[in-house]
Amino acid sequence: MDTSIREVTTEATLQEKKKLRKELRLFDLVFYTIAAIINVDTLGAVSSNGGQALTWLLISAVTFLIPYGLLTAEMGSTFPQEGGVYEWCKLAGGRFYGAIASILYWISNPLWVGGTLAVTSIAAIKTFWFGNPDVLWGGSALSDALLEMGVALVFIWGTTWCAITSLHVGKWLALLGSYAKLALFAVFSILALVFFFGGHSSGEHLGLGDLVPTGNLGVIFSVILPVLIFNWAGFETQNGAGEEMHNPQRDIPRSIIRAGICVALAYAIPVAIILFTLPKSQLSNATGFLSAFKVVSGVLPAPVATGLGLLVALALVIGLASSGGTWLIGADRTYAIASLDRTAPVFLGRFSSRFGTPIVVNTMSGIVATIAMAAAIAVNSFSSDPNIATLFTLVLGFSISTATMAYLFVFPAFLILRYKYPQVKRVYKVPGGMVGAWVVTILTFLYAGVATYFILIPTDDTVANYKGLTRLTYELTQFTPLVVILLLAIVFFIWGQSEKRNKDVVVELNLNSVEEAPADVLSEPSQA
Questions:
Q1: Measuring CA to CA, how many Å separate 335 from each of 98, 99, 161, 359, 484?
Q2: pLDDT value at residue 198
């Protein structure tokens, strides 16, 4: 069976790819994917919605996580080119289609790093070192905002540096972060069980009857499902570095299966324990896991609990940095390849000769994360009722919306590629033939569509629960960045297309080895 396809790429792409280094094996990919998907920052956002959150977590695992994993395993192992998401969307719908998908996919990550990850790091420090997540550093809103920005800057640029440095070094952050998060969950689970069965827990607790989903569709569609989809996302991240893998056709499906099982258990167990050992009144969006950890550590002697708190805060920051770092590693490469392919200024796609990483996009991610962080903290600090939960709501909202919008391009690309390139050998294939392909595409697309719509336009009841925020303020924080992003994508696309020195090249792409053999040089762009 033919394993080659003809693809239009550019001279700059071929030149920059010479700087890539084979670094990733199966072991690396498993923990890279675990680090990307397991998010400590959103556990509280899931748990704070009561028993039905666990039910929807299990439902979404079956109807979204599994189809999403199957879809990504086939697409990633069949088309393992560097740049993953961009390459799939380009092959499916052309360069402009890929350009929109890749900028949404990329920009959601620095927004996330500068938003929820930085905010949760601040919450961890305030919770375990100062005893109160809402404490005002310096005693005033202004001093608190400035000090929060200082802490966030250290976190953002430390995480960005892990993406800038070589993948040989950066991949160890994923491993360390995965161990840190799994260790946190294990220690928490043990302490929570001792706390519960030792009679330390008081107040009304959830029962099995609370697991039944409510009829409040607004909460389900506006709050629960968007966060769950955001939690499950990350299988395709490794494909951003597709040509830096030793054996992507073999290792991608295997790593997704192993990581998927680990991730499902790592989410379900802590969420269940949080829900059944602590009253819901003790949880809040930003600090749910932090508060729960602080409460259950009360079973320990005070000096031990204090020491453990310091270690927990450190492990949380490392875990959060590993989440952000792994996403930046994959998403930055995705947008760099898109830029080299004339969908943005070619200089954005330059790779470092020293590190083999897309240093320009890496730096741009750090800048975007810094701007997002500063804007979010400023809006929250000087709102009518500033608190860290409100800040979390703002930044999580626009992080989720840009990410899920990107998937609205990625998931249909899978089905299009099935029809467009039926002759290409697929080492792994979604079971059920074309029926199976349609099922996994429809399920994942519906989830992404529902999450996108309701995170942008939540119900009135949902907005009413956001302290200090009106609907207008919330929707402005969601739609304004999206409009700017789409306009920027169009401007960058026109800019990239106008760079005549970066000529198009037709290559024969051997999908068994991801080797590109130039077939012809074109003076004008032929694929847009």
A1: 10, 8, 17, 12, 17
A2: 81
Q: Which of 483, 474, 470 has its CA nearest to residue 455?
A: 474
DSSP secondary structure, 284-312, as one string:
-TTTHHHHHHHHHGGGS-HHHHHHHHHHH
**Pick from 455, 346, 343, 348: which is nearest to 407 by CA?**
455
Buried b (16+ CB within 10 A) or exposed e, 459-473: beebbeebebbeeeb
**In this predicted structure, what is the pLDDT of residue 227?**
82
Q: How many whole angstroms separate alpha carbon 334 and alpha carbon 206? A: 43
Say whether 56 sits in a helix, a strand or coil. Answer: helix
Please write the tens of the pLDDT for every residue from 63-76: 999 999 999 999 99
Is residue 358 within 8 Å of 349, Cβ to Cβ? Answer: yes
Q: What is the DSSP letter of 237?
A: G
pLDDT tens column, 510-525: 766 555 555 544 434 4
Q: Token pair for residue 466?
A: 């956001």
Measure the CA–CA gap between 173 and 165, rounded to whole angstroms.
11
DSSP symbol at 509: E
Contact by Cβ (8 Å): 336, 352: no
Tell me the β-bridge partners of 491.
none
CB 33 within 8 A of CB 237: yes
Give yes or no for a contact between 518 and 505, defined as CB atoms under 8 angstroms apart: yes
Q: Residue 172 is encoded by which pair of tokens?
A: 């160890």
Query: pLDDT over 90 for what percent of the chain?
Result: 49
b/e sequence 73-103, b meaning 16+ C-beta within 10 Å: bbbbbbbbbbbbbbbbbbbbbebbbbbbbbb
Please check whether residue 333 is in contact with residue 326, taking contact to mean a CB–CB distance below 8 angstroms: no
Question: CA 235 → CA 33, 74, 76, 248, 386, distances in Å?
Answer: 6, 11, 9, 13, 36
Report the phi/psi class of residue 425: left, alpha or beta, with left for phi > 0 and alpha for psi in -120 to 50.
beta
Distances in Å between the Cα of 63 and the Cα atoms of 238, 325, 404 are 22, 28, 16
Place of tokens 């930003």: 286
CA distance from start to end of the chain: 29
Say how far apart CA 36 and CA 177 lie, in whole Å: 10
Residue 281 CB neighbours (<10 A): 9
Residue 72 near residue 366, CB atoms below 8 Å: no
